[in-house]
Design a protein that fits this description.
Layout: H1 13-16, E1 20-25, H2 26-43, E2 48-54, H3 63-73, E3 79-81, H4 87-99, E4 110-118, H5 119-124, H6 126-135, E5 143-149, H7 163-168, E6 173-174, H8 179-196, E7 200-205, H9 206-210, E8 212-217, E9 230-231, E10 234-235, H10 247-270, E11 274-278, E12 285-290, H11 291-303, H12 309-314, E13 317-322, H13 330-337, E14 342-345, H14 352-361, E15 369-371, H15 390-393
Parallel strand pairs: 2-3, 2-4, 4-5, 5-7, 6-7, 12-13, 12-14, 14-15
Antiparallel strand pairs: 1-8, 9-10, 11-13
């Protein structure tokens, strides 16, 4: 039945509906992810299962309860949720899901694994997650890390931003800015993990986890484009293994640099995860933003009287929306920068994107000025603490 919010809408539609429009909170969208993925796999002829484990905490507080509700409403799907005593045990259990298809007694083509935890939990589970990443992900399973970041310390012991840790763990980062993107990018995270052998990560900030919005189903009307690469005359496919000693680990490290991360970058390009969302031909200034910050940039422009993409274009502003900031797409940034006088990088906390943009453009002909946290004369331009919402972006 086609479901559109109205007189016939039921609360159970958030997990049971397959088309139409549903109302979801951020954590409900994440809880729906394994349901969406298994349904897609069924239509593709795959016999897969889903396993979720982790340790809840704000901004992902309540995710464990919501996952249990979702699984109870979709008993036709093999979804196992095992809350962990701590974050590292949850990560180790998810690693096991990627090894399961290689066992002689395997009953499924693959198991998609989801780990969840807040930023301090990511720190705590770093060793277990790193071992999971080096073990690899299954081509018909996939592993996704859901990280809850609380940039303005709304309900945490300290403000957090997990980008640098995720980069160090060799994980692509997908950063949804809306509830719709939680589902869309979550499905891309699974497909990317299967294609690359990497564990994908999703950065979920408090306003997204705590927020709510309508989501149009199906989330991905078409199957993602899956890039491949040939190695020794064969299509490369990750073979997960828990053999962590010796030369194999050096070989995996080489694969990260030469195969897996380049494949993830190609996945982002071929599926249009990053995009120049506003692109006037006479643009003189460019704005780069990602995830929730991108949404706040649009709100800040609206408050300045520049409302909507047409008005932004008329003002000569070009905007680059990075929904997958890592692996970084330097070629797209160079295309974006062509003809601009100045680029403003708007990001929370550390100037990571600013450094990457500057590095991509360094030495190029006609390089525009690139500013982010500070003006060229050293004065602060964008704060590097708390949440960078529209109030913080606008001048005081």
């Amino acid at each position: 039945m086609s479901t559109v919010i109205g007189a016939e809408y039921r609360l159970s539609d958030r997990y049971e509906a397959t088309e139409g429009r549903v109302l979801l909170s951020g954590v409900q969208a994440l809880a729906r992810l394994p349901i969406e993925q298994l349904r897609r796999d069924r239509r593709a002829g795959l016999n897969t299962a889903a396993f979720l484990s982790g340790y809840p905490g704000s901004p992902l507080g309540g995710l464990d309860l919501e996952i249990a509700r979702a699984a109870a409403m979709t008993t036709d799907l093999p979804i196992v949720h095992q809350p962990a005593v701590n974050e590292e045990l949850g990560a180790t259990a998810v690693m096991g899901t990627q090894l399961a298809p290689g066992r002689p007694d395997a009953t499924h083509d693959g198991v998609v694994g989801f780990w969840y935890g807040k930023a301090p939990g990511l720190d705590r589970a770093g060793d277990a997650l790193r071992h999971g990443v080096f073990a690899g992900s299954s081509a018909r399973g996939g592993a996704v890390v859901l990280v809850g970041d609380d940039p303005d310390c709304k309900s945490s012991t300290m403000p957090s931003s997990s980008d640098a840790t995720l980069v160090d763990l060799h994980m692509p980062i997908l950063y949804p800015g809306t509830i719709q993107e939680c589902l869309e990018l979550g499905l891309h995270a699974v497909a990317m993990s299967r294609a690359t052998g990497l564990w994908s990560s999703m950065k979920i900030v408090a306003p997204i986890a705590d927020g709510s919005g309508t989501v149009d189903l199906p989330t991905l009307p078409h199957s993602p484009v899956v890039p491949t690469v040939e190695v020794d005359g064969k299509i490369w496919e990750c073979t997960p293994s828990a053999q962590f000693l010796g030369q194999r680990m050096v070989e995996v490290e080489r694969e990260f640099r030469e195969i897996r991360l380049p494949l993830a970058r190609r996945y982002g390009v071929e599926n249009g995860l990053n995009r120049i969302s506003v692109n006037p031909g006479d643009a003189w200034v460019g704005v780069v933003a990602t995830g929730f910050t991108y949404v706040e940039v649009l709100d800040a422009l609206r408050r300045l009287g520049i409302s909507g993409h047409e008005a932004i274009a008329d003002a000569g502003i070009r905007i680059l929306q990075l929904r997958m900031p890592v692996p970084f797409d330097a070629d797209l940034v160079r295309t974006f920068a062509d003809g601009l006088e100045e680029i403003v990088v708007i990001e929370e906390k550390n100037p990571t994107l600013e450094w990457l943009v500057k590095d991509a453009l360094y030495g190029g002909a006609g390089q525009p000025r690139v500013v982010g946290k500070n003006h060229e004369d050293g004065r602060m331009l964008m704060q590097s603490w708390g949440r960078l919402d529209a109030d913080a972006i606008l001048p005081g």
